[in-house]
Amino acid sequence: GYVWIGYGFIITVLPLLVMGTIGRLVFKLNHFTLMGLIAGSMTDPPALFFANTTAGNETPSVTYASVYPLTMFVRVVTAQILILMFV
Question: Which of 12, 30, 32, 45 has its CA 20 to 30 A from that of 52?
Answer without folding.
Answer: 12
